[in-house]
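dumping this here so i dont lose it
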């Protein structure tokens, strides 16, 4: 019988560190954002919207995190897959799930295992992706 070593889950302390790191990266770029952190089960661990961030950024950051978690991939890597000629063209409308294929969602791994995801919304997609990546790199 094979046993696997348990991996520590994403904690609320980890989630707060991700939010802080993403917001610092966004602040340095002069961008107001919303940041969402989900655990491996897709449950909300942390959320923060800058006072001046566009309201929809709260929804987009959450959907980006959810998409990165469910597909275990940065949403930036998935954008082309859902274009009309892409292999997953119908995926956004085929499922009754809050998927969003815009850059800014990044899965979080520990010891090679998926433990959650972070999503950033409010800037340009490339900026949001960079802020999310900066947060994940800071955590690891």
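and the seq i came up w/
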């Amino acid at each position: 019988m094979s046993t696997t070593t348990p991996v520590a889950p994403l904690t609320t302390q980890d989630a707060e560190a991700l939010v802080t790191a993403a917001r610092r990266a966004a602040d340095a770029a002069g961008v107001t954002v919303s940041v969402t952190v989900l655990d491996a089960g897709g449950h909300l661990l942390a959320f923060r919207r800058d006072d001046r961030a566009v309201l929809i950024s709260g929804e987009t950051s959450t959907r980006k995190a959810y998409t990165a978690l469910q597909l275990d991939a940065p949403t930036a890597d998935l954008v082309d897959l859902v274009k009309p000629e892409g292999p997953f063209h119908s995926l956004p409308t085929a499922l009754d799930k809050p998927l969003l294929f815009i850059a800014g969602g990044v899965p979080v791994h520990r010891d090679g295992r998926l433990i959650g995801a972070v999503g950033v919304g409010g800037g340009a997609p490339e900026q949001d992706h960079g802020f999310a990546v900066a947060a994940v790199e800071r955590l690891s």
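The chain has four helices and four strands.
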